[in-house]
Amino acid sequence: MRTYWYMSLNNKYPLPMKGQHKRVVMSVQMKAKYSIIEMTREATPVEIDHCKLVYCGHGLWKEEHIQENIERWLRKCI
User: Fold this and answer.
1) What is the pLDDT of residues 55-64, one digit of tens each?
2) Which of 20, 26, 38, 62 has its CA 20 to 30 A from that of 7?
3) Which residues make Cβ contacts (< 8 Å) with residue 21, sequence separation at least 6?
């Protein structure tokens, strides 16, 4: 399953919207200063602003472009 990958710069992640029964966030890898979030859909602009999300790519975790984008943002954050 191809998913959307984001980095949260404040360790918050989107919660399901009211009336929505589908799971939106598949996994969260929490670290001290950031979180890596796997989502089933694209984040809305409100979620991006509230959780300080940075888009890292669409696809599988092991795909090269996703790994490169995460590493690039890690260098900027830490």
Assistant:
1) 999 999 999 9
2) 20
3) none
